[in-house]
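---------- Forwarded message ----------

FYI, see the DUF1400 domain-containing protein record below. Original note from H. follows.
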Amino acid sequence: MILATIKSPKTAPKFKLRLKKLSVILGVMGAVVTGNPVKAAENIFLTYGPFKLTLRVESLELFAEENRVNQNLAFYFRRTTEEQQAEFREALTKRADIDPVLLSRFFNTEIGEDILTRFGNYITIERDGNGKHGLRAAIVQAAFDPEEGLTLLNVIRKFPTNIQLRGEELLAFSQLVERVVTATITFTDVMAKLSSQEAQTETPVDFSQLPDLRQPGSFRTEKTVMNLNDTTRNRRFYTIIYKPQNLTSNNTPVIIFSHGLASRPEDFESLAQHLASYGFVIALPQHPGSDYQQVQAFIAGFSRQIFDPNEFINRPLDISYVIDELQRLNSSEFEGRLDLENVGVGGHSFGGYAALAVAGAEIDFDHLQKDCDNQFGGLNTSLLLQCRALNLPRQVYNFKDPRVKAVFASNPVNSSIFGPQGLGKIQIPVGFGSGNFDPATPAVYEQVRSFVWLTTPDKYLGLAEGQAHVDFSQLDAGITQVIDSVPQLTLPSPELLQSYRNAMGVAFFKVHLSQNPQYRPYLSASYAAYLSQNEPFRLFLISNASRPGLDQAIANFIARHGRLVRE
C-alpha cells in the first residue's frame, strides 16, 4: 500500500492505508506455536497515556458476519465512510492461503523472530508485555484452522489474551510511515531536479546519431559453466561465464556479478549476455547458503534458516576466488587475454553488499548495532537481513580486493552494515542503482543517504521510477495476481527497466573499467533523460557534482519533516 500511495498520494485515504497495512502484516507473517491457546481475546484495548478505550471482539464478529454495527463499534466508525467500512470488513475476512507449516518454520528463523518482536511492540498483551508470542500463536492457529483459515478476524479471535494496542507507539509508527512516503516522493522530485540541472551543464550530444547502448553490441557471445571448489573454505559452487566468441583483445575486461538473496546466477544471464556483446567477459557465481537453493532447502525443512549469516563473509570471498580461478585458467581457457588486474564487480541487493565489500567497504558493527536496536528501523526492511551480521564475531573484516577497479551495485543492501565510515573507505568508482518503489531496500534508506557518504570522486546514483527491487516477470503467478489486484498501482514493464540497466551498465564499465573515453557522454544525466523520453517511468542519474545539492535537500527535509528514524 505504500507503493500505491507513492504513485497517487492524494487518492488513498489514510484510514484505508492503515487498515490494509495491518491486514497485510497479520495476513502474511508466519508463526510458530504448539497446542491451543488457553483463552481467546475478548477485548481489544487501545491505550493512550492515561486513557483506555475498549473494542469488543464480538463487535467485530457481528460486523464481519452480519454487516451490523453495534454501539461499541459505532464509536470507532464515526469519521469513516461506507466505502471505508466495507473495505475494513473485507480486510477482516479476507483469507490468506499460506502453508501453516511453512509459517511455523519461518517464525523459527531469526528474521521471523525479529518481525514478531518489532510488531509485538505495538500489539501487546495486557500489562504492556511484548505481544510476539501471542502473535505467533494466533497467526499459526488461524492458519491451521481448516474452516476460516488465516484471516485478520480469526487471528484476533485466537490471540491467547486480550489485545492491547499502544496508542502512542502506533501513532509514532504511523507518522513515520507517512514521513517515509513523503521522503520517497520528495527525493524522487529531488533526483529529477538535480539530474535536469546536471544535464543542462553537460555538452549537448545528439544521442540519436550514436550507437544505442540498449541494443546488443557487435560481439557474438557464448556461455560456459565452471564448477569451482574452494578447498580452504570447503565451498563448492558453480559460475556461469559469458564471453565474446572471439577474444581479440589482449586486455579483455572482466566483470563479476553477484546475485541477490534467494536468487540465482541464471536470473542475470540477460544482463551478462548484453555486457558480453560489448566485449566484456562476465562471471556469474552462485552463492550457496544465500541463494535460491538455500531457500528451497528451508521450505522443504532441510534448513532452519533462510540464509547463513556467514554469507556476509563468504560472498565477497566467492568473488575474489572467482578472480583467482580466472587467473589460473587464463592461459589454458582464455588464451591469456583476460585483464585480471582491472576487474569490475556488479551486484544486486545482497550482491550489492558483496560488491561494495570487495571495493573496500568495511563492516561498522557499532553503526549496525545502533540501527538494529532502533525498533522503528523496521521501516527499513533491509535491516531484517543486515542485522543478521551481528551474529558474526566482532572483528575487522577487510575484503578489499586490489584487482577490483570499479563497482556498480543495484538496490544494494549497505547503509546500516557499512555506515559512513565503512563506505568512506572505498576509493574506486562506484555506481548505485535504485528504485522509488523498492520495498526491500528502500532508496531513501539504502541508496540516497549512502551516496552522500561515499568519498570517492567518481560516484553515480541512478533512480528508476517504478522500479521495485525485483523483476516481476520472474515472479510466480500468485504474486503477480496480488500485484495486479492493487488499485492505482502501475508498474513499468520489465523490458523498460532492463533497457535502462543494460545501457547504463555498458556506459559505466566502458568508462571506468575499459577506460574508453568514447563512452563518457553516455554516463550522464543527459543520456538518462534521452533514454526516458516519452516514457511514463523515467530514469534519473546524478554524479558527484550533485552531492552538495543532495546534501542540502536532505538537510531541508530533516528540518521540515524530521529524520526517517526515531531517535
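H. also flagged this: Residues 167-201 form the longest helix (35 residues).
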